[in-house]
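As a warm-up, study this chain.
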Amino acid sequence: MNSGIYIILSPSNRCYIGSTNNFTRRNKKHFYELNLGKHHCDGLQAAWNKYGESLKFIIIEHCAVEKLVEREQWWMDNHRSFWGRMYNSSSIAGRPEHTPEVRAKIGAA
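Now compare it with the structure written out below.
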């Protein structure tokens, strides 16, 4: 099974929680965008700028595609007992909360 939940963990023990139907493709996309300095998550981009390749992509759960949003939300709701603060822009899986800054970036693109 190549679908499930992952984290990108920094040396500061902060993480980004995500879900995917293809771990390899998602991992490559995150680090490609981080290397370009154009990742959609400003907090994760700042962590990359500070820690570089010390950030680790870690698979934390395999699950069926139809369970991805449910399981991602569970990990987001319960992450503090594992890793502490998150880099995620939204606390809701599958539905980013667009801040005014994010809306401005989307509009500019």
